[in-house]
Request: fold
Amino acid sequence: LHPWRKGPLEMGGIHIDTEWRSDWKWNRIAPHLDLREQCVLDIGSGNGYFGLRMLGAGAKLVVGVDPTLVFVMQWLAMQKFAPGLNNYVLPAGIEDLPAETGVFDSVFSMGVLYHRRRPVEHFEQLKTLVRPGGQLLLETLILEGEGQKLLEPKGRYARMRNVHAIPTLGELLGWMEEAGLPGARVLDISKTTTAEQRSTEWMTFESLRECLDGENPHLTVEGHPAPVRAAVLVKVN
Reply:
């Protein structure tokens, strides 16, 4: 079931020290959320870790979708230790969901946008999945500073494939407005550190440390600005 990306987790008395300290991300966004009695959709859910946190925050149902089968298998393993929870992970991507479902109170898209070739189209699809009056939370890489509005890496970004575009915060909010999602509220902007994302016994591949310039940690190995992530929340009318 290796690699374990999102966590940390406790199963059967075993502590799983995952690559990401996803609890840190959750702690940054949770104070801004009211998920009580909500039906939630988590796009790119991984093993369902955030779904567990959402249930803990009062959600009545969480449906996660992720096309990576090893993460779905991790979720299935977790069900052996905590059966019956209304936290599900389906082996699918957003493109496999019925169009204009419009039934979820909250939709989360975290760590997905920069892998999409057409970001405005991604927002438009997310919007159709949220019921009127619901909310969309987006978490993604952004480009800090003035001048350049968009980074379109040729090749890899921090050794990641398929990173198509990293916008400034202003450009990101502009995309959302273009998709009919005005008035987004910025919840958090944080630099990703090697304390938050790192190799462990449960994720033995290279991690963020190996993706940064050895002499200048403010740059990736490709010479791009190091990862900075923003979380924004918008009401869907």
User: Anything to note?
Assistant: The mean pLDDT is 96. The first strand starts at residue 9 and ends at 11. Residues 25 and 95 are 26 Å apart (CA to CA). The chain has one domain: 9-144+168-197+229-235.
